[in-house]
Write a structure and sequence with these properties.
- By secondary structure, this protein is α/β, with parallel strands linked by helices.
- Helix content is 44%, strand content 19%.
- The protein contains twelve helices and ten strands.
- The strands form two sheets. Strands 3-2-1-4-5 form a five-stranded mixed beta sheet, with helices on both faces. Strands 8-7-6-9-10 form a five-stranded mixed beta sheet, with helices on both faces.
- Strand 1 and strand 2 form a beta hairpin.
- The longest helix is centred in the C-terminal third of the chain and has 27 residues.
- The radius of gyration is 20 Å and the shape is globular.
- The chain binds 5'-O-[(R)-(carboxyoxy)(hydroxy)phosphoryl]adenosine and zinc ion.
- The site of zinc ion (ZN) has 5 residues, from helix 4.
Length: 342
């Protein structure tokens, strides 16, 4: 490590992954440790907040130590601590925030609170060294669906958001209904490869007063109604066809909104972020549509799409460069909005 390097130790505990990473100069990931609780929550069919918080407490120190060790650094090499402070589960966020504050105090290091969604967007900078704002980004995760213009580092214009369920939430709920279990996204993605996406026509929801807002709860209800009616008529349910048809309905809407935004704002770069961004059908469709329009398409590797701390380290670096510093009054903000600072 060079003396003038900016080395960020990042911590992420907003949901069900306990994660820590070391990031050098904003774009180089020196370590990225993720301890996933998925197996633990699977038994309950979804994330149980209280269990998530307890597990974070058990794992956090170990994960941070591993992140420092595998990056071959000590706290003496670190320039600042970045931590997700919202949005997310309050108890889960608090574990990361308290730990970051404790390290910051003990080691005398600057503290930077990072917005979780800003982290997801920033994951694109890791493998695409040339990517710089402005660009349009579709953020689709378990808790959020946003279409944003990334005007500059840390500066966003939100074009659309979901009015009800997030895209990932819809994947998870439909997966549960068709017996695939939790987490639904990757399972629907996999089983859809054997299904016919045109077998069942599910609605492509439009929000009347907004071109870019999303609504997925109607689609989820349409799937549940379809399953009920099959049951009542005694028609066999073809799981792969339901999965593929549902997935196609989500992907069509995400692609249509994204391409309208790209066209309206005349930007030549488009990126995706969040857990659902690792969906193979979505990636293929967006790659095809961007290619047809001469738009450069950026997407993180699947491991950087789902929750991780490397993305928080990248977003934290750009905040650090701008001079953003938080005090020890930094708190967890479960409903923090993108572009808002607390
Ligand atoms: O970004 P993330 O790890 O957590 C949140 O910030 O919410 O996203 C998790 C979500 C889950 O809903 C999961 O089902 C979904 O991302 N997901 C996928 C895929 N992989 C993860 N959805 C569709 N296809 C996938 N391959
Ligand atoms: Zn996330």
């Amino acid at each position: 490590m060079e003396k003038e390097d900016v080395i960020i130790l990042a911590i992420e505990t907003s949901c069900d992954e306990t994660a820590a990473a070391v990031v050098r100069n904003g774009r180089e990931v020196c370590s990225n440790i993720i301890s996933s609780q998925i197996a633990l929550h699977t038994v309950y069919g979804g994330v149980v907040p209280e269990i998530a918080s307890r597990k974070h407490i058990e794992k956090i120190n170990q994960v941070i130590e591993e992140a420092l060790k595998s990056a071959d650094v000590t706290l003496n090499d670190i320039s600042a601590i970045a931590v997700t402070y919202g949005p997310g589960l309050v108890g889960a966020l608090l574990v990361g925030v308290s730990t970051a504050k404790a390290i910051s105090l003990a080691a005398g290091l600057p503290l930077i609170g990072v917005h979780h969604i800003e982290g997801h967007i920033s994951a694109n900078y890791i493998e695409n060294k040339d990517l710089e704002p402005p660009f349009i980004c579709l953020v689709v995760s378990g808790g959020h669906s946003h279409l944003v213009v990334v005007k500059d580092y840390g500066e966003y214009e939100i074009l659309g958001r979901t009015r009800d369920d997030a895209a990932g939430e819809a994947f998870d709920k439909v997966a549960r209904a068709i017996g695939l279990g939790y987490p639904g996204g990757p399972k629907i993605d996999k089983v859809s490869k054997e299904g016919n996406p045109d077998a069942i026509h599910f609605p492509r929801a439009k929000v009347v007063d907004s071109v870019y807002d999303f609504s997925f709860s109607g689609l989820k209800s349409a799937v549940l109604n379809y399953l009920n009616s099959c049951e009542m008529k005694g028609t066999p349910i073809v799981q792969a066809d339901v999965a593929a048809s549902f997935q196609k309905a989500v992907v069509d809407v995400l692609v249509e909104h994204s391409m309208s935004a790209v066209q309206e704002y005349g930007l030549k770069r488009f990126a995706i972020a969040g857990g659902v961004a690792s969906n193979s059908c979505l990636r293929e469709a967006l790659a095809r549509e961007c290619n047809a329009r001469g738009i450069e398409f950026f997407y993180p590797s699947p491991i950087l799409c789902t929750d991780n701390a490397a993305m928080i380290g990248v977003a934290g670096y750009y905040e650090y460069c701008k001079g953003v510093r938080h005090g020890f009054d930094l708190n967890a903000h479960p409903n923090l909005r993108l572009g808002e600072r607390a």
